Amino acid sequence: xxxxxxxxxxxxxxxxxxxxxxxxxxxxxxxxxxxxxxxxxxxxxxxxxxxxxxxxxxxxxxxxxxxxxxxxxxxxxxxxxxxxxxxxxxxxxxxxxxxxxxxxxxxxxxxxxxxxxxxxxxxxxxxxxxxxxxxxxxxxxxxxxxxxxxxxxxxxxxxxxxxxxxxxxxxxxxxxxxxxxxxxxxxxxxxxxxxxxxxxxxxxxxxxxxxxxxxxxxxxxxxxxxxxxxxxxxxxxxxxxxxxxxxxxxxxxxxxxxxxxxxxxxxxxxxxxxxxxxxxxxxxxxxxxxxxxxxxxxxxxxxxxxxxxxxxxxxxxxxx
Length: 320
Known about the structure:
Blueprint: H1 6-16, H2 20-29, H3 34-51, E1 59-66, E2 72-80, H4 83-86, H5 89-102, H6 108-113, E3 115-116, E4 119-120, H7 121-132, E5 137-145, E6 148-154, E7 158-164, H8 171-185, H9 197-221, H10 239-255, H11 263-277, H12 280-285, E8 291-292, E9 295-299, H13 300-305, E10 311-318
Antiparallel strand pairs: 1-2, 2-5, 3-4, 6-7, 7-10, 8-9
């Protein structure tokens, strides 16, 4: 029978990340054969992975990596079952290792099939499932290229990338701020101009149906009814619609007895409020049309204009 030394156990531990006792048991079973011990630990991982395949893996770590010249970025989530494991230093280190590898691939499938010190990334995740005892998988995976790419990660839970059209002064600040916006508020497209008219109409109809149903209950309970919108995007606010909004505002001011000589000071605010109240879809889904989280007195598009560049793309991944 082979003698298993502490050095042997430590070597196997460093190679696989498995615990001391698991490494010792594997070496004993393998009669000191290092490669066979590794295989035993991997088979254990396969068994654990099979047993936990139906478990939810909504915890973990969201991480990012930008290449040296800031022209390409990667973000992934490495998912596990518990927040305790997700905060573990070794787990986060593995996530960071994987995202650095991810930048060399276009898809998650390519990353999973790639080499990880003699095994595939997919096999490494199975191995670590055996080591940690929880289901581990790569959840979100996004790659973004551009003239300049920056990122932001929110407490290892959400990661975002932003690409701009030129590497201008303060590009790092701009891309971090916009990535923070994307991480915090989410967005599906760059501008309301990208919306398909049929999508806008469908969204409006769906929102009206929800509000009308809520109003039925509110009316029954004697509560204040919600306003039923006629518009939800600036794409619907034609010059004629804006003109009518101005006329309606003037009628209100007249009914309130406000002197005509002060209307010019009040009307812009009323029209702006009308626009704000009737562009809720833009504010939710169109990045440039959202209120800037660091200064809600301006839109994201207004902030970007100050840098004389354009946003050419953005990506976001989140746990859960």
